[in-house]
What does this fold into?
Amino acid sequence: MLATPERTRDDHDRPIQLWHLLGDGHVCNGECDFHPIACSNTEGITLPAGTRDVPVDLDEPGQRWCGDCLVIAQK
Ligand SMILES: [Zn+2]
Ligand SMILES: [Zn+2]
It folds into this structure.
């Protein structure tokens, strides 16, 4: 699933990348100033770090799916 990362911190204040599903209809040219995300109509990622094809069963340290986006990705 094509996703875009949000830099944030986990419950233990460790830096993580939270992956959001790319918003509907966004065509990424690799130089976007903003990425819409599937879990919100109003929020998005400013100055995003690009996109990545992230597996639904993502299992990497410091990486996790946004819960709402994961639900959408699994439909
Ligand atoms: Zn999300
Ligand atoms: Zn883009």
